[in-house]
């Protein structure tokens, strides 16, 4: 079989009978590689979009988590504050109870003293009336 003189010179005819510098199978593989590269670039673009939206979602969730964390810290501090206020109030009430008990004891002693004075005065009045 005779060799094509154009092929030996590096010139080829494609399927449309156009003169080409590349071999037809190399040209076809180049076109296939070009399409695969285009598909790859498209897929990379989609991947970047998906990753970008995922990063945004994670950032949003992180912000929400931080907000909830701050709310929890605030609630915990408020709870501690309320507990301290109750403890202080309880101490005040205990002091008031002690004060009232002491006042009651003074009144009881005063009542007993006045009752004794009243009974002595009634006795004195009875003796005074009997002597007359």
TrEMBL record:
GO terms, biological process: cilium assembly; protein localization to cilium
Coiled coil as UniProt keyword: yes
Record keywords: Cell projection, Coiled coil
Subcellular location: Cell projection, Cilium
Coiled coil: 79-117
Superkingdom of origin organism: Eukaryota
InterPro entries: FT20
One cellular component (GO) term of this entry: non-motile cilium
Name of the protein in question: Intraflagellar transport 20 homolog
Gene name per UniProt: ift20
